[in-house]
Amino acid sequence: MWQPASERLQHFQTMLKTKLNVLTLRKEPLPTVIFHEPEAIELCSTTPHAKSRTHAGYKVTYLGKVTISGTQFLSGCTESAVVGLVEHRALAQQQGTCPASGSLLEIRPFQVRLHHMDDRGEASVTMDTYQVARIAYCTADHSVKPNIFAWIYREINDDLSFQMDCHAVECESKLEAKKLAHSMMEAFRKTFHSMRSDGRIHKSGSTDDFAEDSSTPEDSTPDDG
């Protein structure tokens, strides 16, 4: 029996709606309908493909952070803060309150990412980010433990005031800590060069405008080997 095109399209849409309702009741992913002609319909599944994302970085144990005073940082300025963080973690391990999951420290230009991994160490549960331009100092030279890498970060508060926080991570080896220090220095150099090229730092006054960020990571280089 012949039907006008409009009636056939209406009939098809009613039939398709019924099928979609069935799919909804079954809690299956709804398809995306791409209309061409009533006789030619293409159904494309909208089910997302789960991909396991891996992060490039160094396996570390995050020891925490502590607020320190001052704005000028010299060799050894992170020692007391690191000692306190190491002692606090040792106490937490004795009391059984220390988290067993590790972290992954990813250093790149403009941003440092600290991925807190799950118990299997396969996926990132949460992530802390640190702007490279706010890192005032970094070092891998600590007498309490040679495999600890620390950096001092200028944290901006909600009221626009700032504080200097010393963050520390325990690496798998002393060499890994040294590598982190050099990676941080390289990330800083690329960030500084890019900001100067973009005009965010004036070449005539780059030392004064960016002294807090430009001098300290490189000052730690001789100690980090």
TrEMBL record:
Residues 198-225 are annotated as: Disordered. One of its GO terms (cellular component) is cytoplasm. InterPro entries: PH-like_dom_sf, PID1, PTB/PI_dom. Residues 209-225 have a biased composition (Acidic residues). Pfam families: PID_2. One of its GO terms (biological process) is regulation of reactive oxygen species metabolic process. It comes from the Eukaryota. Residues 130-192 form the PID domain. This is PID domain-containing protein.
